[in-house]
């Protein structure tokens, strides 16, 4: 059985070498890559349900199945994140783009924080609150004499001045001149009343604006910002006494609540310069470990099936099909990131051999472990495979091919189901 498990493990993983070779020497179209990846995802989902979940449930019941799938998902996700943070993100285009996005987002937030660091109301805020605000503000650049807000209009933005000066005008009288580090527009948003004055750019200006929805969201959860605004507002209220009662009443309510993390969700194109820097920081060992992590659960299940005299043809086919697009896109992305063809091919051919040994380990477990232990181990593998599908293969397929990949996914699922039913 050991020899059978080894060769079945190699057979299931052999498409890794095939996919890597195609990815290195050819550049298949996005639609073809997406279709193959979606098809492989469908076959794996059916195989997980029929070859893992159903058999674990029959042998051990639902609780071991629940525990195993949950544990597998947590383990895979946690280890994958750790490996990505230590340089393994380049093993897959999806993780590369995600890591790149996070790095660019972090750098942009640092730049925004530096530009608004001298704004008075932000001076004493905790770092977490500053970062949350930096995620939400939008830079605005205006020319001199441009009207920023007009008396009597409905308030829709809160502004922080990074550079330049603006005049505050009520009626025909200039009340004050605002400069870098000062704010305006908060009064109308706080009270719900129309703008109490007109603000006109005196010089070219760089401002950062926060819309009404985000301003309310941040303010209602930031006691530090509420206190800072109350101090600024106290000075402004001397010029607008009629708004004092409403503003103070609202501030008293807002300043007693807490801040929560606010996330920004937007797409960004890859920056070759940034990517080059990330490649230099990536670790070949992390890429190797991460790639092995993606394939350990599949090879282990193959080994367990071989040891139990059950070929698991649908699962073996699903692994073979799904491994091809995984290696293809990964090899292509690694080559674009500057990894040599020799290193890429060595990595993926090595994965094939290692998968054979992992299958031997699965066979050994099947021969010497209890039925409950085997059931939990198979469930953990199933949960890890599902986590891999949901976090890499399926998002990657959709990104490459759009909604049309749903047909390939359905076709893969039905083929795997048909094979499993025919063999069973």
Order the strands across the largest sheet as they lie in space.
1-8-3-6
H/E element order:
HHHHHEEEEEEHEEHHHHHHHHH
The total of helices stands at: 15
Domain count: 2
| Oligomeric organization of the protein chains | single chain
What's the story with the biggest beta sheet? 4 strands, antiparallel
Mean pLDDT: 77
The overall strand count is 8
**Classification by helices and strands:** alpha+beta
- Intertermini distance: 21 Å
Could you say which overall geometry the principal axes of the C-alpha atoms support? elongated
Instruction: Work out the helicity level.
Output: 55-70%
| Low-pLDDT residue spans | 253-276
* Computed CA radius of gyration, to the nearest angstrom: 29 Å
Proportion of beta-strand residues? 5-15%
